[in-house]
Amino acid sequence: MRPSHARKSRFLEVRRSIPRRQAILSAIGIWIVFFGIWLIATEGGWVNELLVPSPLKVFQTTWNLFVDRGFIGDIGISVGRVVIAFAMAAALSVPLGVMMGSFPAIEAIFAPFVSAWRYLPAPSFIPILLMWFGTGEAPKLALLFLGVVFFLITLVMDHTKNVRMELIETALTLGANRSVTVMHVILPAVLPDIVTAMRQMLAVTWTYLVIAEIVASTTGIGAMMMRARRFLKTDEILSGIIVIGALGLLFDLLFKAAHRWLFPYLKESRG
Amino acid sequence: MSSTVLQLDRISKTFQLGGGRELTAVDRVSFEVEENAICVLLGPSGCGKSTVLRMIAGLETPTGGEITLGRHPVTGPGRDRGMVFQAYTSFDWLTVRRNVEFGMKINGVPAGERRERAEHFIRLVGLSKFLDAYPSQLSGGMRQRVAIARTLANGPELLLMDEPFGALDAETRWQMQELMADVAEQAKTGMVIVTHDIEEAIFLADKIVFLSAHPGRVKEEIVPAFKAGGRIRPKEELVQTPGYAELERKIMRLMREEGQHE
């Protein structure tokens, strides 16, 4: 046996965590490679400048959009739609999902209904939503709502069902009735998982937002991109994509921060 | 004279399996638990001891017989029968103090009294330094202590424990057994403890109910008479007390006989 300190550290180690510095460098590195290839491809004239503008031009355009063209207004509208529609979906999904996960009788009523809806692609409702709600905010919110609500209900229910039976039985033998068991044991036990599920589903909401705004909207990031298409402004389309990506990332980070702030007791788990 | 707190009268539990078959896990089990006494349910795996305990807790319904607590038949779970499980059941989102206060809070005990009782029982299980810690910061043995304090603080007539130290390492298990012997004397609560650990059974029990397997029946009720009604601590001393070795041998033989039926 060689002494352990003589062991050479290798780049690839199975399931061995890496230093934070290496993680950050790796993350930056992959993006440098991505933009590098993009830059070389455009500057080197390998691609049609009209279809693929250089990254520098896209960043310039993004800046201009913000400074001169009031892009922030479009972003505000888009963010507003996502937040409102998602809040409505969560307001329904969380209570319903927790009830379904807690009471098999309630699950038996709603689960067959909810699972069927999950297999209906939300965008297929766009024509009828437009006929019902016209062209205002309502059809967009409805699409976003339909796109996530059934998935969110199912996720919340599944997480609720995973709350360990011993916790529930402990509550019962301490004298808890049904409502105390649900509100003071099941709900706090499942809440961290619910917040994680919401974080995941928020990303999906952004997907439906772009669909809604591309199909039927004159405002918002998606609408801006469709306008840009008409005038062959590929740089503006790519700006839109980058901004959507950045917003998605920002919301993800916000949810992660909220998770840490809401559930400090999960931090030091000894497993 | 001690009086009876809990009485099991020919309790049976038959599970319906698929295809019209059924399995009798517990067959006409009868025994009594006296006030402030520790009754240990011992037996090989498959003897239904956990099922018996869960029926006492009201978490399972017997298919025959009757369980009586005091004067009332047991019909479901209730605060008069607190239960400690083998798996950790600490509420991770509450501090140790709030965990222990939980039962009292939902039963409407005023805040001042709640606080006082919680601190008393946290002291009893030796966790005073960890009042405001979260369970995730505690070791397995400490989390079990939280569960025990939480159950006792709720003032049950009977403390039910289902292999509560099964997941702990040997050293912690001894500490917890000695702790339970202290607790039994100080908290004045009757206990029913399920275990398959013979030494644990002899150490803690005022009475051992030995169950046979497939189906679970009472094979023998054993009173460790050599302890002369007291509890002998520390454990080393118990092992050396005349009578201990004979009793251990006897129970081992019972275990082995049961094992051979398999």
From TrEMBL, chain A:
Domain ABC transmembrane type-1: residue ranges: 75-255
Cited PANTHER family: ABC TRANSPORTER PERMEASE PROTEIN MJ0413-RELATED, ALKANE SULFONATE ABC TRANSPORTER-RELATED, MEMBRANE SUBUNIT
Segments traversing the membrane: 21-41, 141-159, 171-191, 203-225, 237-255
Family in the record: Belongs to the binding-protein-dependent transport system permease family.
A GO BP entry: transmembrane transport
Protein name: Taurine transport system permease protein tauC
Gene3D superfamilies tied to this protein: MetI-like
Main location group: membrane
Domain of life: Bacteria
Membrane topology listed for this record: Multi-pass membrane protein
GO cellular component, one term: plasma membrane
UniProtKB/TrEMBL annotation, chain B:
Signal sequence segment: none
InterPro entries in the record: AAA+_ATPase, ABC_transporter-like_ATP-bd, ABC_transporter-like_CS, ABC_transporter_ATP-bind, P-loop_NTPase
Domain ABC transporter: start-end pairs: 6-238
Record keywords, A-Z: ATP-binding, Nucleotide-binding, Transport
Pfam hit, one: ABC_tran
A GO term for molecular function: ATP binding
Keyword Lipoprotein: no
Family in the record: Belongs to the ABC transporter superfamily.
Protein name: ABC transporter ATP-binding protein
Source organism of the structure: Thioclava atlantica
